[in-house]
């Protein structure tokens, strides 16, 4: 079983892009090279600002859609306290999903590696 990641990227105009992947490094590279989503072709992606890990692609797609339907204020809450996504989703959808929030230290390490690779 392959785990998937649901992520939010900060773009250069202070907007957010939400997506899913099973490989964070490759996916961000595609966004940077303008080979990812149409949104990140027009709005330069800067870094991952929140990442959650889930068990399968179906759950990842549901959570991605859920996040995309929320206002920027709610997305900001999820970014500031990434455990709130699970709480809000479970309460609104009457489910008990398994979702693992990536801690900020690990997220910073990933962004640092991506930043170093982009300088090459």
UniProtKB/TrEMBL annotation:
Query: What domain of life is recorded for the organism?
Result: Bacteria
- Return the similarity comment: Belongs to the UPF0213 family.
The GIY-YIG domain, residue ranges: 2-77
| InterPro entries noted in UniProt | GIY-YIG_endonuc, GIY-YIG_endonuc_sf, UPF0213_domain
Q: Which Pfam families match?
A: GIY-YIG
The name this protein carries in UniProt is: GIY-YIG nuclease family protein
**Could you tell me which PANTHER family the record lists for this protein?**
UPF0213 PROTEIN YHBQ (PTHR34477:SF1)
């Amino acid at each position: 079983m392959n785990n998937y990641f649901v992520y939010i990227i900060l773009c250069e105009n202070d907007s957010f892009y939400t997506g899913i992947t099973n490989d964070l490094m490759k996916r961000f590279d595609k966004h940077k090279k303008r080979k990812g989503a149409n949104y990140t072709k027009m709005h330069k992606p800067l870094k991952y600002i929140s990442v959650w890990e889930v068990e399968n692609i179906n759950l990842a797609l549901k959570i991605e859609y859920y996040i995309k339907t929320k206002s920027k204020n709610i997305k900001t809450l999820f970014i500031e306290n990434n455990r709130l996504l699970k709480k809000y989703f479970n309460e609104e959808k009457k489910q008990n999903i398994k979702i693992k929030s990536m801690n900020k230290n690990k997220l910073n390490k990933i962004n640092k590696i991506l930043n170093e690779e982009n300088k090459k």
